[in-house]
Design brief:
Oligomer: single chain
Helix content: under 10%
Structural class: mainly beta
Order of helices and strands: EEEEEEEEE
Distance between the termini: 35 Å
Shape: globular
Largest sheet: 5 strands, mixed
Radius of gyration: 13 Å
Number of strands: 9
Number of helices: 0
Length: 95
Amino acid sequence: MTVTVSVYQKDGLCRGPAIGNATFRAVSKGGIVYYDIPLAATGGGPLSGATHVYTVARPPGLPEWYLRVASPVHNPWDFFVRDGETHEVWLVRAP
């Protein structure tokens, strides 16, 4: 199964331009790092079919996990997901 994520830049209180070079990882939360798994993602999906919409593969053995979305010029964002969900993420540009 997969998670569908559309990724945009946050511009103040508004959704900004689409981000076409996002990366995805499954991460553990808390004081100890149990896992930090890079995830495969493909463009396209049910939200718009555009390049900023990603279908992210589920990490092996985890029906729910924390997903870290990042890009080279934006701060990463971690949030809890379950297999099969659809999300829209706004990333803040790094200083």
